[in-house]
Amino acid sequence: MRRWSLARQMLALQIVVVVVTVAAGTAMAFFQARDLVAADATGVTRAVALSVAGSPSVLAALDSADPVATLQPYAEKVRANTKVDFITIMSPDGMRYTHPRPGEIGKRYLGTIAPALAGRTESETYTGTLGPSIRTITPVQDSTGRVRALVSAGITVEKISGRLRDEVGAAGVAALLGLGAGTAGTSLAVRRLRRQTHGLGPSELSRMYDYHEAILHAVREGLLLVDGAGTLTLCNDGARTLLGLPEDAEGTPVTALGLPPSLTELLASGANRSDELHLTEDRVLVVSTSVVRSGARSLGTVVTLRDHTELQAVTGQLDAERGFADALRSAAHESANRLHTVITLVELGKPAQAVAFATEELRAAQELTDRVVATVREPVLAALLLGKSAQAGERGVELCISPDSELGDAGLDTHDLVAILGNLIDNAVDAAMSGAPPARVEVSLKATGGVCEIRVADSGPGLGPDALELAYQRGWTTKGSGRGLGLSLVAQAVRRLGGTIEVTEGAGAVFTVRLPLPEEARA
Q: What range(s) does the Histidine kinase domain occupy (predicted)?
């Protein structure tokens, strides 16, 4: 049986249970029916015997010259009406006056008569001339209480057995019907179980469960199962780590897990999605969902999560390096133009103008570099500002550093600072280009009172009230295309550093980020 499938074992077990239950029920019904039939027979014989013994015609017949002539027809008539097998009226010494077999009249009664002679009514099972029977014997007393005769009424055991056979037969038919219905129902249930277990045995199911548990705990990617009602039914270790979920997260509606709104909406949507980027407090996740269906019915959603945070950081670094390369390319392009201009002026015989032009260009470039280096002593941020300045100039946007800027080594994570400042400047340059000329972006960097303040203002059209509320949500953008992660990444980096971000309206939009400085950077 160990090699049987779980469905087959369940079928065998259920059939045994049904057979035992039906057999036990039939046995109980048999014994109960036997007792009831015997009790019913006793009650009938007792009632008949007492009724005959109390009849005035019986006493009158006993005083006649031939009691048999009167009592025999009377007893047979009562016997036929009451369906008992015999009514025997006898003298106190047991000599019969009546009997269903006339040849037995005048012979001695076979049974116990002592209790009746003592004035009591008693019932017993005794074997007489008609075979074993249940009988009741009672005295016939006159007005003085003297016992004048005895009356015995009985029903044969054969007749009782016939009734019992009928009762048991009906019970047996019902038992067979119950057995058939139980077996049929069990077969249907087992067929469904076989479909659901794919015919696998208990050991195979146990092994699959062990594999299932091992895989869930081994994979680094997050895996969630959400049922059709939007309740989390399974969550592996990877998903708990990526989403910061508690150990008892299973059984909780996804709307109560405390996840970001965009991610909550996706988990509750019951839709197929592929490789969507979503942000939590400190991670960038790639989320895919697949709806599980049985026919036209949705059983739930399988959700996979991949941590994109490190890749996003590397991508941000690559974007920064690409920005520096673009800045160098722009600077090289501008330098080539200036050099060609100087050479042409010399060839035209105007060396003084060539020197003046070259000096002025060198002074402007050096002035920007000196101003950035003097105000921002964090080399990574200084390089970022110089690169962004060259990029903005190439796009026709003036990027200037606020005169009151002053920022040394802030002691903050440079990758987060680059993400914050770089994305804010990129968005500001895009906004300034869509506004009225002249396009201008102003950057202010300060470290005062234990707080690093980054302020980026643009001359663009600004943000409306609705846009201010949506600005930090994943996917929001004013460009009409793209994934809209810039400001979301800024907000995430600000949260990681324990800071705040504020958006106000100036000539355009003004973004102000305040980050608490570490203790060692405040000294």
A: 330-519
Q: pTM of the entire structure?
A: 0.45
Map out the domains of the chain as residue ranges: 6-163, 219-307, 312-522
In this structure, is the dihedral angle defined by the CA atoms of residues 265, 267, 270 and 275, taken in order, positive or negative?
positive
> Tokens at residue 61, please?
């017949």
CATH ID of 6-163, from 3.40.50.300, 3.90.79.10, 3.30.450.20, 3.40.50.1370:
3.30.450.20
Distance CA 141, CA 42 (A): 22
Name the nearest CA neighbour of 492 among 319, 257, 313. 313
Cα–Cα distance for residue pair 212/303, rounded to 1 Å = 16
Q: What is the pLDDT of residues 88-142, one digit of tens each?
A: 999 999 999 999 998 889 899 988 899 999 889 998 888 888 888 889 999 999 8
260 close to 277: Cβ distance less than 8 angstroms: no
Count the neighbouring beta carbons within 10 Å of the beta carbon of residue 88. 29
User: Are the beta carbons of 152 and 109 closer than 8 angstroms?
Assistant: yes
Alpha-carbon separation of residue 148 from 64, 75, 137, 492, 520 (angstroms): 13, 17, 14, 116, 129
Q: To which residue do tokens 């941000």 refer?
A: 316
Superfamily classification of domain 312-522: Histidine kinase-like ATPase, C-terminal domain (3.30.565.10)
β-strand partners of 512: 455, 502
CB 449 within 8 A of CB 475: no
Record the tokens describing residue 396, joined without a space: 């026709």
**Residue 301 has which token pair?**
């959603």
219-307: in CATH 3.40.50.300 = no
CA geometry: angle 485, 232, 258, nearest 5 deg? 45
pLDDT surpassing 50 at residue 474: no
Kind of pairing, strands 273-279 and 131-141?
unpaired
Closest by CA to 365, choosing from 393, 340, 405, is 393
